[in-house]
Design a protein that fits this description.
alpha+beta; two-stranded parallel sheet; 4 helices; globular
C-alpha cells in the first residue's frame, strides 16, 4: 500500500501534471493499493478508481463514494477535456458542494 497525503500540493500546475502522469505509470506496473488524499476535485477524479468524500468537522464520516469509470491508461492532459471526465467530476461535486457550503 502506498499512502500519499497531498503530495503535489506545493508544486506548480505543470509539475503536478507530470507527477500525476508518472504516478499513474508507476501504479499501473504494480499491484499496490494507493490511498491518495487531495483537496483538488479534478486531481481526485483523474487519478482514482474510486473517490471518497468525507463530511466536515472533527468527527468526519463518509459522505459519498464514487466509482470512477474512466479507462486506463490515462493521460491527464487529454483526460480532463473529455465529457465523461466532466460528468464524473460533476457527480462528485454535487456531494462535495454540500460539505463545503455547510
Amino acid at each position: 500500500m502506498l499512502l500519499m497525503e497531498r503530495p503535489f500540493a506545493s508544486v506548480d500546475v505543470q509539475t503536478r501534471q507530470l507527477l500525476g502522469d508518472e504516478l499513474l505509470r508507476l501504479w499501473s506496473g504494480s499491484a499496490k493499493t494507493v490511498l491518495f488524499v487531495t483537496h483538488d476535485l479534478e486531481e481526485a477524479v483523474s487519478l482514482s478508481d474510486e473517490v471518497v468524500v468525507f463530511s466536515r468537522g472533527p468527527s468526519a464520516t463518509v459522505a459519498g463514494r464514487f466509482p470512477i469509470a474512466l479507462d486506463r491508461p490515462r493521460h491527464l492532459l487529454e483526460l480532463r477535456t473529455r465529457p465523461d471526465f466532466r460528468e464524473q467530476c460533476t457527480r462528485v461535486w454535487e456531494c462535495l458542494r454540500g460539505q463545503v457550503a455547510a
